[in-house]
Design brief:
The structure holds two protein chains of two kinds. Chain A is 37% helix and 15% strand. By secondary structure, chain A is α/β, with parallel strands linked by helices. In chain A, the strands form three sheets. Chain A has a five-stranded parallel β-sheet with strand order 5-4-3-10-9. A three-stranded parallel β-sheet of chain A has the order 6-7-8. In chain A, strands 1-2 form a two-stranded antiparallel sheet. Chain B is built from one helix and five strands; from the N terminus they run E-E-H-E-E-E. The chains are: A alpha/beta, B mainly beta.
């Protein structure tokens, strides 16, 4: 949990976050490493999945997350239909006493890309049932707008497929989504390294979600720290106003007063 | 017979959700647990009274690392 404010705070559905980095808990080889990575990331909101109880599991994920002082964001990962996603969200609400849900409705095992019609249907049903819905969506600005129209509290467009580490394949669409909706935009999926997270923030995203990029890094704790700095840097840069791109050089030292070193004729 | 997390389980039919949770050494105040019977949520308040019908598909779920 952030001990001090990393950036200007972000508010989603009335909840204030002092870190603009969301962390997925998947892929960490141990709960101890997850806890260390959470601390290094400064994240206050972490995702968890809902799965069958495993009587052989050692240690409690819930206990670790509570000890780290982070809020849970249950996801509906693994759901292929609106019906399954809605049921999973309701079970998560029952299990974790939160009405927040990261809504994932997947269309295909190979790409794990969202199934747009099912996603929209599930979002509408969950909003009507009082959920705070944060949908994992494609980088399509029109779909993002439709999700917000049905009442989603934020949108989470992908940079590239989940776990691909391919970065942001269509930065123009991410900018268009930022312009198209009035709710927070959280870049989700595709981040491979710190510069991808910075780019997301520079494009105007309000936050970045990372999972595999940290948990499967050579040194997850170091990468968690890198992501924290990257999001902070991107946020500052996006507010600072970058210079325009030019084809030719523009000297930063003055021309006036340049010495004359030519030999006398 | 019921299907408990996908596995056939004899002798658990007509018992309460609480009794089935005990098979996993879970008590009714276990944190981070949710139960669905035949695709419907059984709220925690009903765990002590909801009788699981014969042949039911019971899912006992909890938080796992993910996302």
């Amino acid at each position: 949990m952030a001990t001090q404010t990393d950036t200007d705070p972000l508010t989603i559905a009335g909840r204030t976050l002092h870190s603009r980095l969301l962390l997925g808990t998947g892929g960490f080889p141990s709960l101890a490493l997850l806890a260390e990575a959470i601390r290094a990331s400064g994240s206050e909101l972490v995702t968890v999945a809902l799965r069958r109880v495993d009587p052989t599991a050692r240690g409690s994920l819930i206990d670790v997350l509570e000890r780290e002082g982070v809020e849970l964001l249950p996801n509906t990962a693994g759901c292929f239909t609106a019906r399954d996603a809605v049921l999973t969200a309701k079970l998560a609400r029952e299990a974790f006493q939160t009405d927040w849900v990261k809504l994932e409705v997947i269309g295909d095992e190979d790409t794990l890309l969202p199934d747009a019609p099912e996603l929209l249907k599930a979002a509408e049903l969950l909003v009507d049932d009082g959920f705070v819905v944060l949908p994992y969506t494609t980088d399509d600005p029109v779909l993002a707008r439709r999700l917000v129209d049905v009442g989603c509290a934020a949108v989470m467009p992908l940079g590239a497929p989940i776990g691909s580490g391919m970065g942001i394949r269509n930065p123009y669409n991410i900018s268009l989504i930022r312009e198209a909706v009035q709710v927070p935009v959280v870049l989700d999926a595709g981040v491979g390294t710190a510069s991808d997270a910075t780019l997301a923030m520079e494009l105007g995203c309000d936050a970045v979600m990372v999972a595999s990029a940290v948990s499967r890094a050579g040194d997850p704790v170091a990468m968690a720290g890198a992501m924290r700095c990257a999001v902070q840097a991107g946020r500052l840069a996006s507010g600072a106003g970058r210079i325009p791109r030019r084809t030719y050089a523009t000297a930063s030292s003055p021309h006036a007063g340049v010495a004359d070193f030519s030999s006398p004729a | 017979m019921i299907y408990l997390n996908g596995n056939p389980h004899d002798g658990a039919a007509e018992q309460t959700v609480a009794a089935v949770l005990a098979l996993f050494e879970l008590t009714p105040d276990a944190r981070g647990v949710a139960v669905a019977v035949d695709g419907e949520v059984v709220p925690r308040a009903g765990w002590g009274t909801f009788a699981i019908p014969d042949g039911a598909r019971v899912e006992v779920l909890t938080a796992m690392q993910g996302g």
